[in-house]
Structures are given as C-alpha cells and as structure tokens.
Amino acid sequence: MVSFTRRNLGLAAGMATAVVLTAGSMIMFSADATPLAEPGQMAPAITDAVTSTGETISLDQFSGKTVVLEWTNDGCPFVKKHYAEPVVNFQTMQSDASEDDIVWLSVISSAPGKQGYVDGAGAEAINAGRGAAPAYTILDPAGDIGRAYGAKTTPHMFVIKGDGEIAYAGAIDSIRSAKVDDIAEATNYVTAALDSVAAGEPVEIASTAPYGCSVKY
Prior knowledge:
It is built from five helices and eleven strands.
C-alpha cells in the first residue's frame, strides 16, 4: 500500500453522472469526490509499492519533499486530454516538478481485465509513447492504494507536503471536460497548490470534486 499526499466548483459531493463519449464507450463521469484522504490530514502510508520498472518504493522515502499523486488510465478521454500534444499539460507539469525537486507519482489502479490495466512493460511503453516523465509509475492492480486515498477518477490528484500532510485533493483543473482547448482557460488547481506549498502559504483551494473516468477497480 502506498501513501501520498483553486476555485470551488459548486458541485455537491456524492453526485455522479454517466455520459456517453465519442471515444466509443460509456464512462462514468464521477463527481462523487469526497476522498478518504483529505487536506489537513496525514497522507495514508504507502509501503513497498511496485513500480513499472520493478522497484519498490514507499512514501516515507520522500520525506521532506513535496509529492504529487496522479491517478491515470491511458484509455480515459479525460486523461488523454491532459497528455494530448501539442499542449502536453501533464508532461510539462511533470518536467517542472522534477526541476523543482517535487516527486511526481503516477498511479494505475485498474484491475486485471479492466480498462487501463497494464503490466510494468506496458506502463513504460505508455509513458514513452506520450512523453510522460513521472518520477515513478506505481502499479496498483489490487486497488489498495487507490482505495486508501479514496481515488474516484482518472485523473484524481493529491499534493502532499514534505511533512506528509495532504495540501490538496481533487481535480486537476476547473473545467470539467475532455476538450484539450479548455486547458488554457482553466484554473490549474494542482499548480496553484504547488506554488502555495513552495511559498509556505496556505493552499487557497485545497479540495475540489475530481472529474474524469471512474477508477476501474
């Protein structure tokens, strides 16, 4: 099990809506977003998490550093939005995080036989194909890490401070769509949270309802 830790969307937690996307399948667009891991709490422990390269990592090995958790599923249109070229939103954020000594962990919690499930080699191929550069990609096929954090959607984001406290949990940004063009117009909650943490200031918007495809536990 692994642990990590701006603008209210005005959506009630606990709401969920199904939408049919042109990608060809019905995907749950979930706003049932009250996480088990909430801002102000200590991040659930992650220990002996297996990565796509076969390493095992634990959250506490990054003590003193800011950590970002990103739940991902390469088949989800909402994930594809943020990895689409030429915008490369997540790729840019991951590169910036690395430069700032922030640890970015992508987590795949899709179960075997479900959309998004891959083995280590598959995860590495996906990262290479879309130019992703997380510090590590964690394989969580049993869903233990996802459930510990209450991860509902792909993407679902968490920012964890160096002392292990969760600083932000929720959506990547303020426009709940799968349209790449919306990225430039949206408020990026994760970037805002990282800026506040780096400045030693409170995160203005610490919790939002995540949007995207349901995590395929």
